[in-house]
Design brief:
six-stranded mixed β-sheet; 308 residues; four-stranded antiparallel β-sheet; 33% helix
């Protein structure tokens, strides 16, 4: 049975403009879960509740299958690392080395050699104050320091903000290697589709404070396709009636129409049986699938009760 790193049961948090939740969610240990959604959808609030930077008004959260009535025990806190969307101002007068030395006192598993290796790999300037660094340089320090703590649970809020393409690629490779070596759990809030594509095992979609569902990333690819067919305008309504779930029928040129379809292989067979010629089929990109999902057209979702 899959062990859960995080479990949320009917968790709700009130904000000024909306209520986040109720959230019911299982995040399995040893995988990368991407939180995706528009700004204001509740992603950062969810991360803050996992860190107990804020508390829900209702519901229950479990960490590593344990419920803690008050605050998280120190040993649990020391197994969690966090990269916030905005860097901590308290460290702005320190160098990367000095800030790392301070953080090492809070994390018993701190790996100084690994920290130095990551600083060099990310080309973080030596001897420079964090407050004087560029946004990207400061971001690279934050990621290096979080990984040097050797966490069991790593929470990343827009980690690639400010990174140039080269540093972004190094970050992706470093996170994947850390996962492979340690079996840690990563929860990443991001709006970058390629980041989700490269890293995530699971995708959690949030929209206007609500959890729309959770899906295996690989199951999303191919779940929706755009199909172009050779058909006359007067036959299009008849074709649409024969294809359950298909949507967005559009006449591209006289005699050619396209539409979005789930289960493309099954529908292609139905189309052929109707005597209609398929011109081409294109699997939708991840961002297109997520857009459909927010509109209520759901992919195959994870059974949250079983965590499968």
């Amino acid at each position: 049975m899959v062990q859960q790193a995080i479990e949320l049961r009917n968790v709700s948090k009130k904000r000024r403009n909306r209520t986040i939740g109720p959230l019911n969610l299982n995040l399995p240990q040893g995988y990368i879960t991407a939180l995706v959604g528009q700004n204001g959808s509740g992603k950062s609030t969810l991360l803050h509740m996992l860190l107990q930077l804020t508390y829900p008004e209702e519901g229950e959260i479990r960490w590593f299958e344990q419920r803690y009535v008050d605050s998280l025990p120190l040993e649990v806190r020391q197994s969690i690392a966090y990269v916030p969307e905005t860097s901590q101002p308290e460290e702005r007068y320190w160098t990367a080395e000095g800030a790392g030395e301070f953080r090492s006192h809070w994390y018993p598993a701190w790996d100084h050699g690994y920290f130095e290796e990551l600083l060099a790999k990310f080309e973080v300037p030596k001897g420079a104050r964090l407050g004087k660094m560029s946004k990207g340089e400061r971001r690279k320090f934050e990621i290096a320091a979080a990984l040097a703590a050797r966490p069991r649970l790593l929470l990343l809020d827009e980690p690639s903000s400010g990174l140039d393409p080269f540093a972004w690629k190094v970050m992706i490779e470093t996170l994947r290697k850390y996962m492979d070596q340690t079996g840690a759990t990563v929860v990443i809030s991001t709006h970058i589709v390629e980041e989700v594509r490269r890293l995530a095992d699971y995708i959690v979609l949030m929209h206007q404070g609500q959890l729309l569902g959770m899906a295996e990333k690989d199951s999303l690819f191919g779940s929706w396709s755009e199909i172009s067919v050779q058909v006359e305008q007067e036959e299009l309504d008849e074709l649409a009636a024969e294809l359950p779930g298909a949507r967005d029928f559009t006449v591209e040129t006289p005699g050619v129409a396209s539409f979005i379809s789930p289960q493309a292989e099954q529908n292609e067979k139905r189309i052929h049986d109707l005597g209609v010629k398929v011109i081409k089929t294109r699997s939708l990109e991840l961002d297109e699938i997520l857009s459909l999902w927010t509109q209520g057209h759901r992919p195959i979702l994870i059974d949250q009760e079983r965590g499968e």
